[in-house]
Amino acid sequence: MDKYAVLFNYFRQCPYLKNLMSIAAESNKGNTVILPQGASPAVQYQEQFDVNGYYNCTIEPYPSVYEDFQINCYEWYDVNDTNPPQFNENVLTYQEVVGVCDWVKEQNEANNFPDIGEMIVSIECNPFVPQIRYVDPDTNTVGYFITVRLRYVNRTPRKTVEYEFTD
After folding, report:
1. Spatial contact of 103 and 14, defined as CB atoms under 8 Å apart
2. Under a CB-based contact definition with an 8 Å cutoff, are residues 13 and 113 in contact?
3. Tens digits of residue pLDDT in 11-37
């Protein structure tokens, strides 16, 4: 099972998300609900030229790294869909989205992490507030998303690169 399928199933355990069509539906139905957002650098470069003209670079891994994922708290649908969901039935309220953030915090405190094949250190909402993806004045709805950060042990090996420059 790939990382996104694991995350999809993990977040279905959240009481606020389990009945939401985009989370409860098959992973290939509807819009993608778990979107990669960014990641931290895995290594830092310590480089220098010595007095003899040799280039030396030590590639030093950071102890831990993180990946950010956006979790939609609604289902978006194609306007050509023959049976579109009703937004008022498929959008979490602000308080429910805060409940999702609280659930993530509880999972972190209990060390209950998704098994994505990494040694996870923490899972948290970052920032710890829901964010607005869209506002629809016609239906008087707001679509929220949260950003979840997974921090895990960096297993990137340390290595050294050297070159000699000759003219």
Report:
1. yes
2. no
3. 889 988 876 555 544 444 444 477 788
Non-local CB neighbours of 39 within 8 Å, separated by 6+ positions: 65, 66, 67, 68
Q: Give the list of residues 6+ apart from residue 143 with CB closer than 8 angstroms, or none.
A: 72, 73, 74, 76, 87, 91, 132, 133, 134, 135, 136
Backbone angles phi, psi at 52, to 5 degrees: -95, 5
